[in-house]
Design a protein that fits this description.
Largest sheet: 2 strands, antiparallel
Shape: globular
Number of helices: 14
Low-confidence stretches: none
Strand content: under 5%
Mean pLDDT: 84
């Protein structure tokens, strides 16, 4: 138990160090870039008075080590700068968009993981049969699709030719009542969630199938077959557990990217999340907001990788022994 606690502590420190490194990179990008960093943060159209205020607030008239201390202090108390386009604090702009992105991405990722792992296990258990070939080719097709192309195709089919779902937005104007609002949001989620879930699911399907085929050729699986255990029990109880290790690792990485949102998918469906916010920030050269999204994504990625490491150590004793040394 002490060894596991030490392992968790080490992973936590590593996650914190990654976040600190990203923050330092963002600082030096601002301060070592050519030109006046105050102009970059304030925007090229800012007045001289406002640029002076930025220089004073961020300490740009001071040595670089003092600037770093001021920068870290401001980040620590939640002052991530001021969005020049939204005319609002960066952290508020990000947090206002975060729920929509989490709702969209977590729903799509959850569906993709469960469906992809299930189909991967089924096809591995029936490897090289007609069922395996059909599902595997379908997975390959969706794996090859660019997300924006699939999104446009779904809009064309299910919003224009067959008008079943809205083309964009998160809720219609004028909807009253909690239940009606929930139904309306779910209705708007169908196409963007389907787009992302199909793309993500193909990755999990192919990964699970590949690992499961290796696991099913292990000696302990042949022993289980010789004992006469049911096929479903062998696949889902004995083989799938060992095949989940790379799936957890991939989910940990993708979960971190959730905060950044699906940039093109959110843009196509006019989804008011972090992805579309990033596009607007880049378009209007809102550097404080771009850097804020960059830091938030780094924090989410570090936290999700930390959780994935803990889960992998819990699921597989071999991984636990290796990670703990």
């Amino acid at each position: 138990m002490k060894k596991f606690t030490l392992f968790v502590l080490k992973r936590f420190i590593a996650a914190v160090l990654v976040i600190v490194a990203v923050v330092l990179i963002s600082f030096f990008v601002i301060n070592l870039a050519p030109g006046n960093p105050a102009v970059m943060l304030a925007g090229e159209a800012a007045s001289p008075e406002y640029i002076k205020e930025i220089e004073k607030a961020y300490g740009f008239d001071k040595p670089i080590e003092e600037r770093l201390v001021i920068y870290l202090e401001r980040l620590f108390v939640g002052d991530w700068g001021y969005s020049t386009y939204y005319q609002a604090p960066v952290l508020s702009a990000i947090l206002n968009r975060l729920p929509a992105t989490l709702l969209l991405m977590l729903t799509a990722l959850t569906i993709a993981i469960f469906a992809g792992v299930y189909l991967g296990a089924i096809t591995a258990g029936r490897a090289f049969t007609k069922l395996d070939t059909v599902i595997n080719y379908l997975g390959l097709v969706f794996y090859s699709f660019p997300a924006y192309w699939l999104a446009l195709l779904l809009v064309l089919l299910f919003s224009l030719y067959v008008p079943l779902f809205p083309t964009g937005g998160i809720i219609d104007i004028g909807i009253e009542g909690v239940f009606q609002k929930v139904i309306n949001v779910l209705w708007h989620m169908v196409l963007p969630v389907s787009t992302l879930a199909l793309i993500f699911m193909a990755s999990y399907l192919r990964l699970t199938r590949s690992v499961m085929i290796d696991v099913l050729s292990s000696n302990y699986i042949f022993t289980a077959i010789a004992k006469g255990l049911p096929r479903k029990r062998i696949i889902f109880k004995h083989a799938l557990r060992n095949a989940l290790i790379p799936v957890i690792a991939m989910a940990g990485t993708q979960f971190g990217q959730v905060i950044a949102g699906a940039v093109l998918t959110e843009t196509i469906f006019s989804w008011p999340g972090i992805g579309s916010l990033l596009i607007q920030a880049v378009t209007f050269r809102d550097y404080p907001l771009v850097i804020g999204i960059f830091i938030m994504t780094a924090i989410a990625t570090s936290v999700s990788n930390f959780v994935a490491d803990i889960l992998m150590a819990r699921v597989d004793p071999r991984v636990r022994a290796k990670l703990m040394g």
